[in-house]
Model the fold of this input.
Amino acid sequence: MKEKILLDTGPSPRGWHRISTFGRCPRLFYYKYVAKLALPTTEPLVRGTLIHLALAHHYSIMREKQQKGNPGLYYEPIAAMEIVAPRWGRMGLDLLDLCVAAYQAYVATYGMMENIRILYVEEIVEGGFGRAGGPRHRFTQRYDLVFQDPTNGRVIIVDHKTAAHADGNTVTRYSMSGQFHAMQHGGPKLFKANYGGAMLNIVGVGKDPKMKRQMIEPAPEAVALFPIVVADREERIAALEGKDESDYPPAVDDLICVHSYGRCEAMELCKWGQAAARASGIIR
Done:
């Protein structure tokens, strides 16, 4: 019997997550992308990954039904979470019930079959950005969901986020996210006149999970400057290639080392150094 599909919902190979990490903290970039250390896992990361996985399977099954395909190709959303949760050990198992409840609340809010035409689920797109007249730097992005509104033909690119409280600030901060700026560059090129914008799909987690969908607020200046942001960070990353850990400066910024999702996964490593962190079991 053929094994069912378990989708990959992780970051794309050369996407915003990579260069955003460098922008936040070059030392964290070194730990993750150069030394490739096994840093401590955070609860928001596990929670977000499990819910992303459930939604990826939810919409893949929906697409198969719409296209008269085979919905049985994919694991059911909750089954997919149950398979992946143990990979994070105790933390994954402890968060599983919370994530299942959030997914069930999502289905209760929007239903099993929405009036949208699913085009892509977890699709990797590729392009390039650079300074005017300069080299283009490879850039990839994984679209969580792309759908077409059958009432007007508009194509919407959706990114799923999880949040304990989906307030105004939660939505506003993503208007300044390079992840969405990349969508706003790529969407019109891919979908031409049918492109309808980028949408934030917030899945609430907690005792009374709330759902919120909202189009990303306009940020035309930031979007126009996005190619320069990519070029600047890629140039600085290239300049450090082959250098030692000591050449990658840490951010040492209280708003970066401790942020809205908790503390940076490399915080103790930066405080004590690799030798002490290994000796204490913080990293492997």
